Predict the 3D structure of the following.
Amino acid sequence: MEKVKTGVKGLDEMLGGGFIKNRPYLIAGGPGIGKTILCVQFLMQGVEEGEGGLYIALEEQTEQLKEDMRVFEWDIDKIHIVETMQDVGSGTWTLSTSGIVSSPKFNLKNLMESLRDTINKHKPQRMVIDSLTSIKMLYDNKTDARREILGFMNFLLASGCTTLLTSEQLGEEILMEEFLSSGVVRLNAIENQGERITGVSIVKMRGSGFDKHMRPMKITDDGIQIFPNESVFSP
Ligand SMILES: Nc1ncnc2c1ncn2[C@@H]1O[C@H](COP(=O)(O)OP(=O)(O)O)[C@@H](O)[C@H]1O
Ligand SMILES: [Mg+2]
């Protein structure tokens, strides 16, 4: 099976080479842990390999994202950032360069239709949906959300892209999208003797072996770095 390098130092070792090509993966963790950074790093790795990258911004606006990522000195203009806007009149999504307006009548079907056109136009090999949490919030009940997200995962499987989706996750909470995606990478923040440490764990990875241990991670000016030979809890 062909693997795709993540661009995150240490993560490819944990994954046995990278993500399996053309599948959707979940990047889960609490707010501010580094999900967006990891995803942009993944797209920049694609740029390095001459692959097209699409970043679907459901949470942050382009200017904000560029500002947040400035410190890393990545050539972020080489990835295609798509902002989403909900067209209140028609109840559909427009992918554009404006902000986001929330309304419960918007659904994933509408978003997928606009996404399909964008994917056909740009033919990206890598895609990021940041975040799936903002899509999930459109549904009042879990059964609807689960059915729609499953449909979305199948759409992504057929899209010809390796996709990362971010999700907010607090503590030991288990998310329905963990069951629906091809794999889950969790970014954890844990307290150890009064110190806050961060670690990466791979929860599942269909079709591939992976490192079952949580490994320390840190964010530097080069992005996220993982230490695949170290333990989070030092003796
Ligand atoms: N150059 C840097 N060095 C260390 N930490 C950084 C740097 N740049 C950003 N961060 C940290 O990254 C975090 C934000 O990461 P982000 O990917 O936006 O989080 P998330 O998407 O999970 O909410 C912040 O907590 C910030 O402190
Ligand atoms: Mg984020």
